[in-house]
Every structure is written in structure tokens, then in C-alpha cells.
Amino acid sequence: MRGDQANRLNNGGLIDRSIALNFRFDGKTLFGFKGDTLASALVANGVKLVGRSFKYHRPRGILTAGSEEPNALVELRSGARREPNTKATTAELYEGLEAASQNRWPSLNFDVMSVNQLFAPIFVAGFYYKTFMWPAKFWEAIYEPAIRRAAGLGRAAQVSDPDHYDKVWAHCDVVIAGSGPAGLAAALAAARCGARVILCEEDFVLGGRLLADSGMIDGLPAAEWVARAVAELSAMPDVRIMTRTTLFGVYDGGTYGAIERVNDHLPTPPEHQVRQRLWRIVAKRCVVAAGAIERPIVFAGNDTPGVMMASAMRSYINRYAATPARRIALFTNNEDGWRTAETAIAAGLQVAAVIDARPDVSPAHRSLASKGGFPVLHGAVADVDGGKGGVRKISVSLTGGARAEVEADGLAVSGGWNPAVGLTSYHRGRPKWRDDIAAFVPDGAPPGMVAAGAANGSFGLGACLREGFEAGAAAARDAGRSGNAGSMPVADDEAFSITPLWHVAGKGKAFVDQQHDVTASDVELAQREGFQSVEHLKRYTTLGMATDQGKTSNVAGLAIMAAVSGKSIPETGTTIYRPPYVPVAIGAFAGHHRDENFHATRLTPSHHWAAEQGAIFIDTGLWKRAQWYPRTGEKDWLESVTREVKAVRGGVGFCDVSTLGKIDVHGPDAGAFLDRVYINAFSSLAVGKARYGLMLREDGIVYDDGTTSRLAEDHYFLTTTTAKAGLVMQHLEFCRQVLFPELDVQLTSVSDQWAQFSIAGPRTRDLLKEVVDPAEDLSNEGFPFMGAREVRLRGGLKARLFRISFSGEMAFEISVPARYGEAMARNLMIAGKPFGLTPYGTEALGVMRIEKGHVAGPELNGTTTAGDLGLGKMMSTKKDFIGRVMAGREALVAPNRQVVVGIKPTDKARRLRSGAHIIPKGETPGPDNDQGYVTSVCFSPVLDQWIGLGLVERGRERIGEIVRAHDPLRGEDYDVELCNSVFYDPDGGRQRG
Amino acid sequence: MRIICPFCGERELGEFTYLGDAKPQRPAADAGEDAVYDYVYLRDNIAGVMSEHWYHGGGCRTWLKVTRNTLTHEISAVEPAAGAGAAKVGA
Predict the structure, then answer these.
(1) pLDDT for A913-961, tens place per residue?
(2) Number of other CB atoms surrounding residue A393 within 10 Å
(3) Which residues on chain A are in Cβ contact (under 8 Å) with B84?
(4) CB contact, 8 Å: B38 with chain A?
């Protein structure tokens, strides 16, 4: 079964005719062969119309045979794997491939929106800016959605991508982009010298232009030479050849980005395999042998299906044995274009005419024309007569003014070649203009990179081999490899002569950027309206901003701009080149970092036990913390949390607080060091004692807080908040290493080494007696409030015990090595059974800290001072510390600052909400009367009402004042009373008891 | 970008955190508010070679003084902070 394939040549090509592949395009079943791209298979089946254009919905065909394709974009695959804007020219054909044309409704042949062509005169550059100016509110609601429906290309899948993507690193001496003659020669030279080489080729076959344009190398036909070179490279252990891999970017320090389409050529990736792989390649040297891209000439009707780049036509005929037309006309301004006429004749196709813009044609080509029986017309294509059925007739304006008509069903166009200057220009490099080839070539490159061959503007086969070989050998040498590169491959250089021609003036639409539907007259309009800089031209007309990034259009666009503004092309210049060279799926950048693997998950030591209890977990940073422990019959979280709080305040509860940052501070200067990083003194702290400490940033704003204990003369144990654990470590290391290198102190992060539990409530000591060795004195005298020391547990395990309280109750925190954390939780539950021990989560923890007026994250918000938090008196006046001087600035000690105060609604039944703004009674809510806001709220089981903390102007002086809580987001406005921030046990008797 | 950590060798950018200009020195305790204000807020915005603080948080936790060209990202020198490592100044 091979189907019709009416335009398949009977022999030749790099396709495997023994493997016929069935595929569907717009629902129609067609056949191709293994080795085809979707585009070549469509060509073989005589399909000319493959899509509708972006703005005018004009019928479009296939323009190129590579990744520069602007027109032949399809939706590939279906369902969750549907991939819009896929280039048919690079999509490998596989059995069962499904593709659909884009941007047409109801069908490709009859597209309603092609009516846009009638309105073409108004769809000019800047159309949207000019037309949809006002009313402004119409833009989001009406204009933009309507425009988005009419314009745009393919449809995204709208569902989660079922495939996996990988990200990997590779290191080598020399990375080479492209496997044409220059790339292969570079790889041979570098590898023979002993370099570790990575060769990246975006195609699925190695050889580059040698796959389409034959030639003789070292006396062998090019294809044979390629096979020999590949065999030699494959046999070398330090050479990695990566096909289907595009080197898309260069980054600092010799790092390169490459995308490998591992399984895009299969319907679905095999099990356990990835779809694509993002490579970050670190290479000492890079040879860019990415070749050149043939450029179109802009003339009326140049987007008609059947108009194709001359080199692409050769690719389809020679590589794929598929002929885009039967009777071909060629329009060229350079010597290279003639190769297509030679190819057509060799393939037995008719050449209708060659239209050459140059004044002279070589004698060899003249005799080819007479042998082939076709005319050579000096002049340019003025118009193309055709439509969705393809090219029918070509109108030529001859040099001298006469006109001629050529009947053909295909038009090959060659406007010369643009070296692929992307990679060499990504570090804001500006390519330089070369008159002899009428093209931009690299002018320098990022460190370690060099361009060779066509990418460097050397188009001859011999020159490509020579430059590639020399660049490869030099790269190996620079990478420290001293082997022998052997003999250089040799070939003749073809002549290359060009007479630049960018734009043939005429009636009808002449497209510069076919993917974005930018015409020559749009460029001229932009110039008239003052958008003369190429960067403005690009943004105003959107030239070069489509997914093809203007690979076939940018240079023509700026050449037209140069002509209309009376400047030279180099004066007009190029826009900035930016990676990626080809579109890269976001999925590839994300790799496996998606869904539950988006970031690491940290579990507390008691996590599995808590999960068994049915705990509800909350994400706090990377941690999962138990938020509350629901019990059967409880109707909502508030009921569970209230029960937990009451259990602690009335008996005993425990909570895993291992997420706090923990840092061991060792050394003879440990105390002096802490004195400098905390606002209060720690050198004076007695061994066996803990103290609450507050750190400022150097600008005087509060940074972090926590308790720090002195376990020995030269050993402190410091805790941080959960959120700032890593940052405080970094800050302290900065203080130690950079600010105070003279202090003999060492820091060790032990956050993950210790499991820490808070045990709180009046029956805490009863419980601890069951856990701690009876020899340890836990009495108020033996272990007073703020005591801290190592203890032995029943069974002999050593633990650290801290008599600190966040809840306001009699409480201890107990630390055991993390591996005992889960056992500790289970043991506590057993030992605590007689006392009704209740596990509590972060909600209850939060309720109790608000009842006690302790500040936490919402108050330590990066704008508050120690004074704002009511902790100003802690600031030592006897020592220097980080933030001391700046904290004394006028504005930071101003009496009208917003400070922490307690807040409770006057209506006890009213729920208080954080975020509500505090407005004085009788004033209109607004920025001028905004005196602060509610930072933290909870339902207090003790007071049986909602309470909160807030930052309120002069709050502490206004205790008892009734103000308004104004909450426009929730549409609430109610009276609240400012009160003491310590709602519960203000004299602290319970925690000291 | 790649930084050669004196303790860990050449490592990629993702392991490091940037802080900023390494030139300003923390003023002495009695230097006064203006000096501290300059230290905290005033920074040269150098287009060219600059000495910067970088933190190797994904490695040895050393603070590094990196000499970098802000125009080209070329790194010409990397040295550990004075108090990095275990040995102390004068110890």
C-alpha cells in the first residue's frame, strides 16, 4: 500500500520506499515513505494548499524545507498531544500521523475569514493601535477577544501535557552546531585531535545541504563522503552525535542550550521515555556550522502556493524524490539559484523559464537553457496569477520595460543566502554586511565560539570544508588537545555571484513576512509614519515576531526599509538577535519539575504519624505541616482548632515544630558574634538558659526572631522562623565570613538533624516525667522558665529540653535526633494517654500565639521596626549590632508609626478579618484616613470571640479607642476596639508556673 | 555563567546567590549615621569590572568575592571572603 503519491518521482531520494506510512491531513488519508517529512509527503501527494495566513487568511503552501518555514504550520496530533504551529517541514512522518491545517473555518478550501482580504486596505501596519483606541474599556471586553478569535494560528491542546520532558547537563571540549560539510569537517578535525566532541544536528539525518545538493568531496560523491565521515566519527568513543537536536542558545561561561526531540518522530513516546530533552552543554569551544538560509524576493503574489525557495525545491526533488511542480519557473538573482534548473532537468521535469535579475548569465547556464529548451528572461517577477490551487501564470517585467508571461505550476525563488547569524549574535553581537554576497555575516562571536562555512558567509563547498576543518582543529587545540587532525577534506568551490534584488515594485500584495502577513507596503507605511529604526519597524509591523522569528523575512524587511529611507543596508542595521533559535516547548524547560515535583517536598519527622491521625496538611514553604487534626463529628476546621486550643490550655498538647531553622553556633567568640547579629545581648546569657532574640537588617527593619539557648560556654543553639531558615543561615554566614572575620566562630545548619516538639499545657510536666529519665529535675526550681539543657530520656536517648513557651502555657520544647522524631511522637501519645494528650496543628499554634500577642510572619513583614513590634526596649545601647544605626533614623522612631496592638470587634458575635483597614470613627475611608490594618486574626476560645493583632498608628497610646475596621474587598465595615495585644494571661504567670 | 569556587571547583550559576557590590565596608560602630547610610544605600552602578559578593549556598556555603565584568559577564577572579573556611585570621 503506497497510495497515489502522484508527485513522487520513480527513483532517487533518501526515502525508504519499502516502508510506506499512512497519515491523515485534514481527515484525508494519504501515504508517504519513511524518511519523509510531513511537508515532503504532502508534496508527494500533490497537496499545495496547507494553511491560511495569520491576518488575511490567504491560501498558503510550503515555502521552505527546514526550520525557517513561515507558512506550512499545522496542528500535529490530537487530544492532549495536539501541538499547534508545528512546521510540516521539520515534522518527521510516522505511521498514523494526524495533522490539521490551521486558521481556517469551516474548511481549508472555503475559509469564511478570507473575506479579510477584501478589507486588506485597512489591515495595515498599526491597524489595531489605530482602530481600537477608544473607548479604553472596550479593549479588554470586546476588541481583544474578537481579534484573538479572528487572528492567531493553531489551537493549544487546553489540557495537561501527558508526556515527560527531561533536563540534562553535558560537558565537552567542542560542541558543533550543524552537520553539513563544515560541521562534519569540524567534528572530524576536533575529534581526531582527541577532543571530546558533541555534534548537534537539528535534522534526523546528518549531512545538511549535502542531502539535497550533490557534489564531489575527496573524489567521492558527497553522500558517500558523508557516510564515511559519520562512520569515522561514530567509531570514536569521545564523540557524541545528536540528531534531532537544535543548538538554540548560548549563555555565559561557554554554556549552550540544545533541544533534543527524542520521540517527536513517533506517535507517542515509548513507555518510560521522554518526549524531548533539554540539554545544557558546557563546552570549552563551539563551532557554529549552522549553514545559511535562502531568502525570498518580495513581489506581488509571492505567497501563492507553489512559490517555493529554490533550494527547498531541490531538497524535495533530490532528498525526498517528491516534485512540488511539473513545470517549473525559476526566479533568481544569483548563481546558486540555477542549481534548481539543473535539478529539475535531471529529474525529468520541465523548466518553463529562468527569470534572472542579473545582467549577465554564465555561458554554462546559457547552454543549459538551450539544451533544456527554456528561455532565460532578464528581469523580475512582477506578479503571480494563481490562488489556492497554486501557481498558474507568472508575469515578468523584463529589463528594459517589456513584459512577458510564463506558464508554470511552480515558481522557485532564490534571492541569495543569509548566513544563520543567530547563535553568533546572541550576546548582542551585530553582524556585519558583506557586499560581495549581499548578506550579513558574523562579526565576532561570544567567547569560545566561531562560525565556519556558510554560517560565516563562505558558501562554496570547498570553503565550507576548509573553514570547518580549520575551526575544528583550532577548537581542539584551544581546548588543550594536541592530536593530529589528519588530512583536510577537499572539494571545488562553486562560483557565487549575486546582484541584490529585494523587492519588485508592483500592484498586489507582496509579502515580506509571510507568517505575520507583513507586506512591503506595510514597511513603507511604517517608514512614512516615522518608525524608521529597525527595532521600531519590527514592533510596529510585527515583522519577524512570529514563531519563525523572521528567518526568511528580516533581512528583506530591513533592505526595503533601507531603500525607502535612502540609507544603505548596513546603516539601517539589524534588530537584536535573541535565543531561542527555534521555538522550545515550555515543558522542556520545566522538565520533571511539574505537578508534585514542581519543587522539593519537606516532611516533618512526625509526618507519617500525623498522616495516620488524619491530619490536614498545609504547605509552608517546602514543608508540609499538620494544620489541624480533625475528629469524627467535628463540622469544620474551627471546631477542631478550638478543641485543640482548649485541650492545651486545659491539659496538655503537643505540636511538631521541627520546621524552625536550627543553627549550632560554636566557638570562643560565639557570644560576641550573637551580640552583633541580635539587638539584645547573648554573651551575658548564662549556660543552661534560653533567650528570645530579634535580628534586624542593616537598614534597621526587623529581619527574624527566635529563641537561642546557651548549651555550653562556647556553644549556642539558635532557632529561626520556618520561612527564613535558609536566609538567616546565609545572613549569618555573611556576618561571620565577610563582616566579622576576626571572630572565632563556626556555624552549622542542624535544621534537618533535630526533631523538635512543643509540649504545652498545665499537665506538661506530668507528661514529661513519663518520658524523661526520673533522675532529671523538672521542677520549677530545677528547670525554671527559659531553662535549656541536655537531658537523658527514659531508655537512655539524649535529648535537648528547652523551657520556652509560644502558647503562653507551662511548656517545654524537646529535641531529639531527627531519626527518632516519629518514635517520639508515637511515644508521647502512649505516655500522654492518661493526661488526654492532644496533638495540635499550626492553626491552634497560631490561635494561642495571637491570644498571647506574640508577633509572627504577618507582623515581621519587612516594614516593621523593633519598636513597632513593642520590642524596642530589647535594643541594647551597650553594643553595636546589625541595624543599630539605621534603626535610629527619624522616620523609624517617629511617634506616629503604625505599631502592633490588639483588636477586637465591639460586637462579640462579629468575625474579624485580616486585611481590614483601620479608619478613625467618623472619617471617610480612604488613603488619607488609613491608620493601619489588621494583620492576624483568630477565634479565641478563651475570650469566646474573634480577636486579632494589627499595625495601627500610635496604637499603643489608643488602647480602649473604638475605630472602624473597613474592608472594601469583602464589603464590610464594623467597629472594633483597640486593646492590649496580650489577650491571655498578661502577667505570664501560667508559663512560669 | 559559571563560577570557580575556591573550595568546590567550577560550578554553574544556579548554585550561587548574588548579593552585590563587595566594595563598601561596614563602618565602625562610632562612624555615625551618614557613614552607615552610605554603606547601606549608596552603590556604584558599574558598567565594567566590579567586585561582587556571591554566596555558594548550593555548595560549601562560602561567601565569595567575585571580580566580574558586568558588561560581558566575564569573571576574572574569585576569592573566598576573609572569614571563610575553618581557619581564622590570626588564629
Answers:
(1) 999 999 999 999 999 999 999 999 999 999 999 999 999 999 999 999 9
(2) 15
(3) 737
(4) no
